[in-house]
Amino acid sequence: MTITETRPRAVAPDIRVVRRRLGPGRRIPYAFWAGPVLLLAVWSAGSATGLISPAILTAPWDVVVAFGEQWTDHDLLGNILSSLQRAALGLSFGVAAGGVLAVVSGLSRLGESIIDGPIQIKRSVPTLALIPLFIAWFGIGQEMKIVTIALISMVPIYVHTHNGLRGIDGRYAELAETIGIGRREFVRHIVLPGALPGFLLGMRFAVTSSLLGLVVVEQYNATAGIGHMITLAEQYGQTDVIVVGLVIYGVFGYCADSAVRLIGRKVLAWRRTLED
Amino acid sequence: MATDPRGLITEPAVRVRDLRRSFSESGGVLNGLDLDIAAGEFVALIGRSGTGKSTLLRALAGLDRDVAGSGRIAVPAKVSVVFQDSRLLPWRRILDNVVLGLRDPGAAARGQQALSEVGLQGRERSWPFQLSGGEQQRAALARSLVREPQLLLADEPFGALDALTRIRMHALLRKLCEAHRPAVLLVTHDVDEAIVLADRVIVLDAGVVRADVQVAGRSPEELRTFLLEELGVTR
After folding, report:
1. Is the pTM of this model over 0.90?
2. Among the listed ranges A163-177, A198-212, A226-240, which one has the minimum average pLDDT value?
3. Element (H or E) spanning B197, and its range?
4. For chain B, domain boundaries
């Protein structure tokens, strides 16, 4: 809010009254990297001064060395791609299922009564506790791993999309009725765009959930993948390799989350929020 | 079609008989209301708060599924509603809002035509939040116009606008109605707005028509005094 006030006969320049800003303010360039870089700086400083002993946490430069060794001698790239593929497949199935279930349950009372209960029950059972059962059903191969990741990432998508959808202003539905559009167009023009902010929030949780699932499932009979690499390193007591794995998980998660947020800013350009 | 009590020969666009609506057991909001609106006629509906203006409009719009009541309503096939808020979808650009749900190939061109009729040419790609209140309401008018309604229902469409914008909107609405000739039912609190815009003013009280006057042939001052008296405002 800016009020420019010009006083008569005043020789001084315009007096501008500017209100104190209460929102977060303008975007800072490269702010995206500031937090992680700061974290890295603290880690480096701690290791260099000896405050963080190598037995507790390997120094960043040793992690870089271990990374190089893994890359050249142990097919780190193959492990990364294998993990990414698992996470991406599981996430895709989970997002698709969660989205469809949320729309069906959000738009129909019958759908809600059938779908919502089981999903709430599923939420309270930790997915990781279901793994022994999944092993019995699907074996210890790729199938079990993808099902677990899909289930883990489906829940936040369902919850947030459903919540976003039910939060759409009822007046828009009324408008749609007076315009006389059909159910399909109602979904396309009002339900899906209206639920999109909720869906994207769910997506942020789902991405990190899928990585969580990945860590666990890759400890079962995997022959490749970051989790497999960490499990092996644990057996041989290679803390540096474990940290390489953790850093890769962290980078995955951070990049994926940032990607979702960036997409969110683009597709939600119609909103005027504190974010902008 | 039966003869009209006021002797109108043309078949009315809107015909309402013995309309009753109530939200509770104790009392009705509409109590046996009769109303005819001729094709192309502009009717303003005034009345104090709670006299059933909006209930009648929503009944004509078919938006009162959950309200108990009886009576007969005949409205044209193409009805369009303008609400007090513009009700533009915030996630659709202005032109997409105007042509929302229209699927014929000429819709976009007609949408642009309608936007220029309401003075919003060049704003097709704007988001609703980028428009002022008056502009948003003009976009809502364009959205109604592009559907070429035979009946336009407007529920206090200018209620949220400032006085100057309101005057401009009155002129715009009159111009548009003269060009497109829909039957109009405008719900308003504002006696002057009713007199400026309408061919006929109806005063609603306790769910029935209390007064029904033609605007033509009367001086605005005389009409204003009469309507205010009917509304129970005396000086």
Report:
1. no
2. A226-240
3. helix B191-197
4. 1-78+150-235, 90-148
